[in-house]
Every structure is written in C-alpha cells, then in structure tokens.
Amino acid sequence: MGRDVIIACDFPEKSLVMDFLDLFTERKPYVKIGMELFYSSGPEIVREIKKRGHRIFLDLKLHDIPNTVRKAMKVLANLEVDMCNVHCAGGSEMMRAAVEGLTREDGSRPLLIAVTQLTSVNQDILENDLMIERALPEVVDHYASVAKMSGLDGVVCSPHEAGRVHEKCGKDFITVTPGIRFADSSSDDQKRIMTPEKAREAGSDYIVVGRPITASEDPVAAYERCMTEFIG
Ligand code: C5P
C-alpha cells in the first residue's frame, strides 16, 4: 500500500487554491478538496486540478439512500477523483451501492473510504443525540468492520487509532489520518495530534495535513519536510 501526504486545501475559493498549487513546480502533491471549495467552485475545480497532475481526495462524505449514492458515485468516478468517502452510518447496503457506482466499465475505481464517527462526536452526543448506547471506540471498531465487509478500502481515523484499525481489519485496509502537526508547530484546534514520523510508526497509510503546510511561510518546504518525516 502506497503511503502519501495529502494536503488539505481548505481555501474558500478557487483562485486561492490555484495560487497555492502554483507554488509546487517540482513534485505535485496529493490534495484534499472539501465541501466548501467543491460547492463554491463546482466539478470544474476537480478537472482543473487533475489537469495540473495532482491526485485528488474529494472529501464530500456522502450519506443518502443507496440508489442516490450509487448514481452520485458514478459521477465522481467519471470526474476521475482518486479517493472519495461516505458515512458508515448509511449502512452496508449504501456502502455496497457506493462501490458499485464508483466501479467503471473497465473494473477500475477510485479508492473509497468511510467516516466511522466524526471526531466532533463524543460519548455524550452518541448516547443522547444518536441513541447509541455503546462505548465510542467499540462503535468506531464495529463501523470499520462493516465498511470492510461492504467492500470499502479503508477509513478516516485519528493516527492514534490507525494501529487498532489495522489489527481489526488487516494491514491492507487503509487508514487516512488527519490531526498531524510538526513537533514545533501549533496544534490549532486539533485535540489529538501526532507528528508525521510518529504517524508512520503508528501505521497511518495517508496523512492529511492542512494548516502546517497551507499557513506556512514556505508551503513547499513544509510539504517536503512532511514527506521526508512520513515517507522517510
Ligand atoms: O489544518 P489541519 O491539518 O487541521 O486540517 C485537517 C483536515 O482534515 C481538515 O480538512 C479537516 O476538516 C480534516 N479532518 C479532520 N479531522 C477529522 C476528519 C477530517 O481534521 N476527523
């Protein structure tokens, strides 16, 4: 399984992300495009960034009835994204429909990963809002197993959980982990952070890094530092 650094391009508009990507003249980083940019700029932003030679994780977290998700995924597969995601909470039928929709006629498809529980959900929300009366780690483990059984490729999780997910679902089940910070950088609003080097040791397959690169005075140097620490 190829390890890589994915830059979270959390910019509010297209011109800002394009100016940012213009800085990378040598290596073309893997980038994550989220809802804000996709909804403001539309699918064209994916085509343009692909044309520049970047791989794209389109982070739209689909969650709807199986038929709707199947059709939406077909559109994303045609957009040639490299990785996309769904909420496990949609259930196994929805996740299997997502895999079907993503699979192109030649059998190829983008990687599909699952959100188990959002990191903003705590035990209190789980019990009182969602009426799930189990411990949060147990719910996350179970959702990861259901994602694997539904044919998905992996999950988004904290690097602190990557080892446990691999133990439960196998080493080929991908862990995509945000919450990454250099030893000497600010943690911003992230609560449970890890350095790129420690994330590698913990078994992360892909690290998602935003502000330590995008808000750096020298984003290219910060990205290269991340690659060196994570890939070695
Ligand atoms: O700037 P920073 O490195 O904190 O960005 C992390 C990225 O990963 C953001 O796009 C954030 O929305 C995303 N993310 C996260 N925690 C999750 C899931 C996604 O930080 N559990």
Write the topology of this structure.
Layout: E1 4-8, H1 14-22, E2 30-34, H2 35-41, H3 44-51, E3 56-62, H4 66-78, E4 83-87, H5 92-102, E5 111-115, H6 123-128, H7 136-149, E6 154-156, H8 159-169, E7 174-177, H9 196-202, E8 206-209, H10 211-214, H11 219-231
Parallel strand pairs: 1-2, 1-8, 2-3, 3-4, 4-5, 5-6, 6-7, 7-8
Helix pairs in contact: 4-5, 7-8, 9-11
Give structural notes.
The protein has 232 residues and is of the alpha/beta class. The chain has a single domain (4-231), classed as TIM Barrel. 44% of the residues lie in helices and 16% in strands. The chain contains 11 helices and 8 strands. The protein has helices at 14-22, 35-41, 44-51, 66-78, 92-102, 123-128, 136-149, 159-169, 196-202, 211-214, 219-231, and strands at 4-8, 30-34, 56-62, 83-87, 111-115, 154-156, 174-177, 206-209. It has an 8-stranded parallel beta barrel with strand order 1-2-3-4-5-6-7-8, surrounded by 6 helices. Helix 4 packs parallel to helix 5 (92-102), helix 7 (136-149) packs across helix 8 and helix 9 packs parallel to helix 11 (219-231). It is globular and about 45 Å long. The model has no long low-confidence stretch (mean pLDDT 96). The structure holds cytidine-5'-monophosphate. The site of cytidine-5'-monophosphate has 13 residues, from strand 8.
